[in-house]
Amino acid sequence: MEAQHLWDVLGEARASVKAPIQATAPASTRRSRLSTTTARPTSRLRPRHLVMAAAGVAAACAVVILQPAIDVWLRADYSTGVAETREIRLEDGSIAFLGADSAIEVAYDASRRRVRLLSGQAYFEVQKDSMRPFHVEAGSVDTVDLGTAFDVRRRPDGVSVAVNEGSVAVTSPIASQALATPLVAGDWVRVAWSGTVRRGNDAPELAGGWRSGMLAVKDEAITDVIDEIGRHYRGKIIIASGELGEKRVTGVYDLNKPIDAVHAVAQALGARARQVSPWLIIVSGS
């Protein structure tokens, strides 16, 4: 819409250049001017100027769209690209496994070890240090290690935490009462930005299971599963309807083959996945 508006404005500018303002001087003066001056061709906006203007609008739109990603990149101490995972040994000996298309910021001091999950997902194996608690912050959700291995994921609608070993305390100002009880092995919690909290318990090995390259999900919404697979696909995956995205699925999917994984998810629900280009997959009802 902004590009069209600019195009219309440029069109009006061209029209105004083509129609010079009429002089109000007396006729004799006009004749005198005509006899002593040479007519100049009407100036025009050249096509290349229009192309440059349109390119400028496109560049401005790109900056707006990419600004969040740029901010993450500038803040991150460690990050991964699409379909890339990474194992990082932190200065205290703790290990952070970064999922695909993820980023963390690390800030250690004498009293606290703090990691901010800026995007994506990370699994942590924490070295015990009673004098310096280990915090993982994801938005307004803070996970404090109590001697454990756990997974934290930023979702489009909130944050999820799942424990493989030991226990963690999860706190958030938007859902303080629902998070009063610490999580132990097998427990998981999902905190929505709206303040809604869901808790449950599954096999502990599901927490961080994506590190093997296989995504195991149990009763997950299609939207969440596709979001996870999408970080391993160099393109865009679109779910055609919100109703379809809310349906739930259980299964194991190969993250090293994201296109096959999307087809498998769709097939499980009797839906259809169409790859309309090398960079676009659309999931729709049958």
Describe the structure.
The protein is of the alpha+beta class and 286 residues long. It folds into three domains: 2-35 and 45-75, no CATH class; 77-204, Sandwich (Jelly Rolls), CATH 2.60.120.1440; 213-286, Phage tail protein beta-alpha-beta fold, CATH 3.55.50.30. The protein has six helices and 19 strands. It has helices at 2-18, 27-36, 47-75, 222-230, 242-245, 258-268; strands at 78-79, 86-89, 95-98, 103-108, 113-119, 121-125, 134-138, 141-145, 149-155, 158-165, 167-171, 183-184, 187-192, 197-201, 214-221, 236-239, 248-254, 272-277, 280-284. It is globular, with a radius of gyration of 28 Å.
Topology:
Blueprint: H1 2-18, H2 27-36, H3 47-75, E1 78-79, E2 86-89, E3 95-98, E4 103-108, E5 113-119, E6 121-125, E7 134-138, E8 141-145, E9 149-155, E10 158-165, E11 167-171, E12 183-184, E13 187-192, E14 197-201, E15 214-221, H4 222-230, E16 236-239, H5 242-245, E17 248-254, H6 258-268, E18 272-277, E19 280-284
Parallel strand pairs: 5-7, 16-19
Antiparallel strand pairs: 1-4, 2-3, 3-6, 4-5, 6-9, 7-8, 8-11, 9-10, 10-13, 11-12, 13-14, 15-17, 18-19
Domain FecR protein: 77-168
Organism: Nitrobacter vulgaris
Protein name: FecR protein domain-containing protein
The total tally of domains equals 3
Shape, per Cα inertia axes: globular
Give the distance, in angstroms, between the N- and C-terminal Cα atoms: 33 Å
Tell me the CATH topology of the largest domain. Jelly Rolls
Radius of gyration: 28 Å
Strand order of the largest sheet: 1-4-5-7-8-11-12
Helix segment tally:
6
Beta-strand percentage?
35-45%
Name of the CATH first level of the largest domain? Mainly Beta
Please, what is the average pLDDT? Answer: 82
CATH architecture annotation name of the largest domain: Sandwich
Order of helices and strands: HHHEEEEEEEEEEEEEEEHEHEHEE
Which residues sit in consecutive blocks of at least 5 with pLDDT less than 50?
1-43, 62-67
